[in-house]
Design brief:
This protein is α+β, with helices and mostly antiparallel strands. The strands form 2 sheets. Strands 2, 3, 4, 5 and 6 form a 5-stranded antiparallel sheet that branches. Strands 1-7 form a two-stranded parallel sheet. The radius of gyration is 26 Å and the shape is globular.
Amino acid sequence: MKKRILSCLLAASMTVAWLPSAAMAAETEAGTEAGTESMTEAETEQEPEFDVADYLTINDDKYKGIEVTVTKKAEVSDKDVEDEIKQEASDAGLSTQVKKGTVKDGDTVNIDYVGKKDGKAFDGGTASGADLTIGSHTFIDGFESGLIGKKVGDTVDLDLTFPENYASKDLAGQKVVFTVTINYIEGEPEVNDDLADKLSGGEYKDIDDFKKSVREKLEQDNETNYNREVYSAIFQQLLKLYPVDKYPQEFIDYYVNTSMNQLQQQAEDESETLDDMLKSVYNTDADSMKAYFKTYAEQLLQQRIILGVIAQKENITLSDDDFQSAVEGYAQQYGISVDDFLSYYSEKDIRESELENRVMEFLASKAKITETDETEIETEELEVETEAGQTEAETSSAEADTES
């Protein structure tokens, strides 16, 4: 689980972190998968209090009427529903096993394999009954592509070379041979009443009713993704309008220390030193990790301070009933009980995050939102990048002419 948790944090740093935040959802999911774990002493320390008004003053109302451009909310097609059901079936192990046929890109195959270096099997290079999606780049270059065109039942030898920067020093840059047997190709199950019954745990006996529920879920996901994009675009404008120049150092210290202590606990759980775990699993060191957590803490503070000040100006608050309703909604979203949800996050954190949601809803209601196709935005971004590249090239050329 340790690699998953940090990768979730890294992914979360690329987004705005109000609920339902990437970090919160990912940590809840990871905690649910691993079972409820006892919190370390560091994790139970109180987060430092501070007044957002001490770090930012907003004397205008430019946050109202912010102009942003976002992609249109995606529509859910019949194919989307079918694909989602088939994916759920695959995740639940309800797919069929195709014992004939040829492997093609995109197929999920079940394989046995043995990896050998200099004729001897190496640690971690052997598995039986492993599922692998061709084209997922899960394995080193040449492994997945080497299975394309091969038939179910075939046993093939793949002559491959590990990357020079591979985590294991014993394998980095080394030539190896993987002997792979293709057991079967994962086939799509028939989408019918029986499948609906199995996937829903008996809640839906009719496939049409089940499809309706899946469509509603996908539409809700699209709504959430759309709102997240709108909020993120608005927040980027807020950062330009109201830059935060100072931060509460006690909060940064708390966040960095707590995060590092969590990593320390993960290392101890794996009977490793922190330095060894950071190097082998994350390809980094403690100083770099602390620098990352400091940057992320500042990003969280930017959000908390800016939105907190706007909440004060607009008298946006969160009642006890609002809090309870939010908690119940998130618990249902993540498929856990309210008590479990509250065991992962403090009431203070949830209240602050939900208040930030309310502020973003308010800002979105006042914003001027232009919707466009995703391809149009990608084209605009490409044009900007091209212009930037041309400008950089022109500058370099001018400097070269000056030097000569």
